[in-house]
Amino acid sequence: MLKVLTELAQHVGTGLQRTPKTLSSMYFYDDAGSRLFQQIMALPEYYPTRTEFAIFREHGAAIAAALAPAAGGEFALVELGAGDGAKTKLLLRELLRAGTAFTYAPVDISAGAMTGLVAALQQELPDLQVAPVVADYATALSQLRTWPGSKAVLFLGSNIGNFGPAERLDFLRKLAAPLAPADRLLIGFDLQKDPRRIRAAYDDAQGVTAAFNLNLLTRLNRELGADFDLAHWQHYTDYNPLTGAVRSYLVSARSQQVHFAALDETFDFAAWEVIHTENSFKFTLPQIHELAAEAGLRVVHSFTDAATDFADVVLAIHQE
């Protein structure tokens, strides 16, 4: 825990000195944040989760066939950021139904989340071979090179949209680096659509998304001894249909100072100054093909819902 707190303190100390001030969305997910995000996924405005579920329900068998190696042999299904594995269980059942010999390797930085997932899988899918990996993405990716046999790497839930353009390209290149020609990636992309629907998904009428964003300040108060007064902070989200970027902010509603005991430092906030907390980019199908090519990948299959709101895209390394 000390290491996590130290990393959080260093991140905050750096991020709040930038212009504009920034904090990473990776720190949203303490216990309270995780519970709030579960509520967000059930909101009527938040379409991405149920839409990706619909894709897996309708195209699960075809997705499983696109990921499994044609030649058979050892096969690992590696999922980055596995969480509760709810959507992935649909795919696991399809692979088991098809008689595919494989090992499921969920990757998550949370040991608690991993314990819960493994226990649920043992109960629901007792025939499944599970090799859990408690690590961050960078560590997991470095280990992929040493894995025997073929592999398919899952990165679901439109998490790719949380990266800015340069970070996104770098991340995809790192994903591609340990892959052999027979290996596959499956990445979820939220597609561009009615701008009003997109914005509503990140600023719901019940205020759950606002509570999720503001919970970051509660976490900083608790873990770093900060003295944010949440009564003087607001959640704000905007969507730019030209760039496909949803950006979320915490807005200081008055001129104020916030002291961090863990940093022994005080930060000044002007009235209506923002802290940028999250990006969520939306894509077009041509953009996905262009991005794949830049990263040394090619699109093998694209699976979308009936309304083309979301795409689960199977990728492979580009061969000359």
Automatic annotation (TrEMBL):
Record field: transmembrane: none
For this protein, the record's InterPro entries field holds:
EgtD, EgtD_Methyltrsf_superfamily, MeTrfase_dom, MeTrfase_EgtD-like, SAM-dependent_MTases_sf
Any idea where the Histidine-specific methyltransferase SAM-dependent domain is?
Answer: 9-315
| Keyword check for Transferase | yes
Does this entry carry the keyword Transferase? yes
Top-rank taxon of the source lineage equals: Bacteria
The record's keywords, sorted A to Z, are: Methyltransferase, Transferase
NCBIfam families xrefs: egtD_ergothio
Q: What is this protein called?
A: Histidine N-alpha-methyltransferase
What is the organism field in this record? Hymenobacter frigidus
